[in-house]
Design a protein that fits this description.
single chain, Rossmann fold, Serine Threonine Protein Phosphatase 5, Tetratricopeptide repeat, DNA Cyclobutane Dipyrimidine Photolyase, subunit A, domain 3, five-stranded parallel β-sheet, 49% helix, globular, binds flavin-adenine dinucleotide, Crypto/Photolyase_N_sf, DNA_photolyase_N
Length: 446
């Protein structure tokens, strides 16, 4: 009998448009589907609480789908390099397939595995499944990477169009006796004491089938008005695909192929472009979550942290209605509308003068769509320290933002009807202090 093939699922918890799964099927051998919870390998950032909640449910859904098709999901925990070797040894696998990852620690693990498994005589192949364009394929005329979005996106659009998505397999040839598997409950990914996930359960249905339904709904109902309504947080006009893309329940190729068929989708497609830009930036600048991309920002004179202010921001108790509404939406649902993410982040950095990294950490823990690139990239964008970032002197005024994008107060009424009304800081004074602090950055960069 042919030795089985392992398909190692990572940030791609789906069966449709899964090039690694397709390659395993083409090899014509029984398939072992595997997921490894790796919290131990050097440099791997442990998942935040909301992300763990999503992962738990998405794994259950993937296992159910695999069982329907004739296979099942093997769950293992530990440093990925060791665990993959163990499963190869236990199963006698002759091939291992995966879709690529782009963070530095993940790339290092994958490269080491590729070479050690190949040395043992296994077939090992990796594929492009999570980004429309591989980061090393989008380069400027002089061969460097882009630091400004518009030319980056122009260059992407000039490349061959993203490939058509692959169909999902009709059935799978699972191995008769799969390797030992943990039960998802063993990993304690769900919160228990206390169980704070009620709002997440009310808001989301993780898993590929629900992701596909959401995409269909968005394309049929909301995409035509996306351009005009995307900035209004109460409008419900955006796709809500971010956690689905983060966990790979939908591939960007599927979203791209389906959205390009709808007239007037350019703006939406360019948001997928920002996702690409963030990931490409991480690929070229692996320390995006901890280091200023523009080093002159290291000169920013962050004052000593007042933990009460950070706490008030985290829990939506700042007395600024739009900020409090956003932080409460985040706490309740694991999600926040993009416009409000910008406003709450700007308030933390430029009115409370709290280091963007502390905001990034809070979002990392509370967002269901938190990923290694988009979160840090956007925090640096708001801080002004990142790629193609908002200019440092742009300090969002949360009151004007509320007037402009939540004119009738619907969003604030939904999320913060009883929030305090006395602001913890004076917006005008703190803005002045922020601009003075940024002057030091300017001097450092001059
Ligand atoms: C401070 C801050 C932190 C953020 N953290 C994250 C994060 O951890 N994960 C995350 O996916 N997005 C993050 N974003 C980007 C953006 O807010 C979300 O992607 C968006 O709100 C998701 O809602 P949606 O799927 O309805 O978006 P849509 O408007 O429907 O956009 C479609 C898709 O495009 C991508 N996208 C949209 N805007 C951006 C953007 N600015 N940068 C990168 N990709 C984008 C997302 O994959 C999104 O699902 C952050 C933004 C800010 C300002």
């Amino acid at each position: 009998m042919t030795s089985p093939s392992i398909v190692w699922f990572r940030d791609d918890l789906r069966l449709a448009d899964h090039p690694a799964l397709r390659a395993a099927m083409d090899r014509d051998a029984p398939v072992i589907a595997m997921f490894v919870l790796d919290e131990e390998s050097p440099g791997i950032r442990p998942l935040g609480g909301a992300a763990k909640w999503w992962l738990h449910h998405s794994l259950l859904s993937l296992d159910e789908r695999l069982r329907d098709k004739g296979a099942r999901l093997v769950l293992r925990r530990g440093p990925a390099e060791r665990v993959v070797h163990e499963v190869v040894a236990e199963s006698g696998a002759g091939a291992v397939y995966w879709n690529r990852r782009y963070g530095r620690p993940e790339r290092e693990i994958d490269a080491a595995l590729k070479s050690s498994l190949r040395d043992q005589g296994l077939t090992v192949e990796s594929f492009a499944g999570s980004l429309l364009h591989e980061p090393w394929t989008v380069t400027t005329g002089s061969g460097t990477h882009y630091s400004v979005f518009t030319p980056f996106w122009r260059a992407c659009r000039a490349l061959p169009a993203p490939r058509a998505p692959l169909p999902e397999p009709r059935e799978l040839d699972g191995v008769a006796r799969p390797p030992r598997s943990d039960a998802p409950g063993d990993w304690e990914l769900l919160p228990t004491t206390p169980d704070w996930a009620g709002g997440l359960r009310d808001t989301w249905e993780p898993g590929e089938p629900a992701a596909r339904r959401r995409l269909r709904h968005f394309l049929d109902h909301d995409l035509p008005a996306y351009d005009a309504a995307r900035d209004a947080p109460a409008a419900g006009a955006t796709s809500l695909l971010s956690p689905r893309l983060r966990w790979g329940e939908l591939s960007p190729f599927t979203v791209w192929a389906e959205a390009t068929r709808v007239e007037g989708s350019a703006r939406f497609l360019s948001e997928l472009g920002w996702r690409e830009f963030a990931w490409h930036t991480l690929y070229h600048f692996p320390d995006l979550a901890t280091k200023n991309l523009r080093p002159e920002f290291d000169a920013f004179p962050w004052p000593g942290l007042d933990p009460r202010q950070l706490d008030a921001w985290q829990h939506g108790e700042t007395g600024i209605p739009l900020v409090d509404a956003g932080m409460r939406e985040l706490w309740h649902t694991g999600y926040m509308h993009n416009r409000v993410r910008m406003v709450t982040a700007s308030f933390l950095i430029k009115n409370l003068l709290i280091d963007w990294r502390l905001g990034e950490e809070w979002f990392w823990d509370t967002l269901v769509d938190a990923d290694g690139a988009n979160n840090a990239f956007n925090w640096q964008w708001v801080a002004g320290s990142g790629a193609d970032a908002a200019p440092y002197f742009r300090v969002f005024n949360p009151e004007l933002q509320a007037k402009k994008f939540d004119g009738d107060g619907e969003y604030v009424a939904r999320w913060a009807p009883d929030a305090p009304t006395a602001p913890i800081v004076d917006l005008a004074e703190t803005r002045k202090a922020a601009l003075a602090a940024y002057d030091e950055v300017k001097r450092a960069g001059a």
